[in-house]
Amino acid sequence: MQLHISPSLRHVTVLPAKGFKEFIKVKVGSKRLSYRMVFYCLLFLTFLLRFVFVLTAIDTIDGERKCSTLGCLGKKIGPRILGKRLESTVPEVIYQVLEEPSEQTEIQTRSESPQTFDEFIAEMKDGRPDAKTFAVKLKAMVTQLEERTRTAKIQEYLYRHVTSSSIPKQLHCLTLKLAHEHSTNSNARLQLPSPDLVPALVNNSYFHFVLASDNILAASVVATSLVQNFIRPEKIVFHIITDRKTYAPMQAWFSLHPFTPAIIEVKGLHHFDWFTKGKVPVLEAMEKDQKARSQFRGGSSAIVANKTEKPKIIAAKLQALSPKYNSLMNHIRIHLPELFPSLDKVVFLDDDIVVQTDLSPLWDIDMNGKVNGAVETCRGEDKYVMSKRFKSYLNFSHPLIAKHFDPSECAWAYGMNIFDLQAWRNTNISHTYYYWLQQNLKSDLSLWQLGTLPPGLIAFHGHVHAIDPFWHMLGLGYQDNTTLSEAQSAGVIHFNGRAKPWLDIAFPQLRPLWTKYVNFSDKLIKSCYIRAS
Predict the structure, then answer these.
(1) pTM exceeds 0.85 for this model
(2) Which pLDDT score is estimated for 440?
(3) What single string gives the DSSP state of each residue in 234-302?
(4) Which residues cross the membrane (predicted)?
(5) Which of 36, 91, 103, 470 makes a 20 to 30 Å CA pair with 503?
(6) Pairing status of strand 345-349 against strand 11-15
């Protein structure tokens, strides 16, 4: 088919490619036809040609190879427009072969099946096989490619699980060097804070932030980003909670790197009286949970060896084995009222966040009597991240969950939360948290799979006040669809997911948002070969 446009642009002529003397002429009178109109004409003709091609291809598959008249075309289009369907003439044997279970087909043909679609087409053209042979070879090829894709995907998930669950040697090096500094350098053993600033730790006129972590570099980034972006840093009290083994290196880092004028407190869990006396529910729950998981799941090897489950299910189970979900640092937030009995309000931060704005306005938010100020994750422009409801975390096929909760209820996020401790002390949130942990253990861990958010959703049910999404952008650790400009526009960004910014698997376009708060010229940082990329 040829297209001819007259020099005056007054006629557009479409000439058939073969043997037709007729032509179609579009008259436009005395007005010149604009180039835009010419473009639309071309676009329409292209669409028409493709439409006819598709119909012809369908006719060929169904056995009608001669369909070059308008009558035939009408015969094919008419029933479809009217909602009717012509009976297909595709050989029934093709459907039979494709619908058979894989075990009943000729599996041995997979080793001889084509490796690509182009090879398959070439083989079909050369061999001209019958319908059954065509279907068998097609199914063998697709099944083989599907198995290879599944295996590769599972291997990717396994490698990511191993990487995200491990401690990079650079961070391990930093911990060891700081432990050495703590034991040999008196400046690394300073009391934090200094005695004259201790009263500020219980003074509610300050802005109190809490971080629980055993990752020294991550804690430093959170503190640095918080202080640098705060309008009145002298009013910050930053409470860092860590475990016994990390306490000395953590104290050494913040002793050698003061954040003046902000006030920094570093405490180990063993420094809290209530934690060292009697039974602590969080410890009992963690021990039982860890033991049950090891028996129930059989470890990563058993998970990966499963040949029937989908890769995404396997990925979720691998993620559930992550050490952070059994870390005391991840559970300790449920004890904030006991940890800080004199404080009225705190902002709790995860160690994989970066602060990019002044957070003092969080204290001006009216919580309406609620306990937990959090960003909801069921609405937003990013449908991949902001589409989480209770059904995303809880198992509603279990009658105990189905009886008490609504699957469509909006979920919310940990990572940057405002906690009204006064209101919290008037509730039974902590008791509810442990009650449901026990129910999950009794149900063979079938109520939910991942970590502390599911029991948190249950415990804080009815006690959550939704805050503006500006204050907490999620997903920077498990999907790279977020652009740099979008991330830079958020008040707090959260690298939740496996691709933590301190790991090699971090998304390269997002990692600079975290590394900008690391001083790579620092002696300890350089000695452990910690680099920006």
Answers:
(1) no
(2) 87
(3) GGEEEEEEE-HHHHHHHHHHHHHS--TTSEEEEEEGGG-HHHHSS--HHHHHHHHHHHHHHHHH-HHHH
(4) 37-58
(5) 470
(6) unpaired
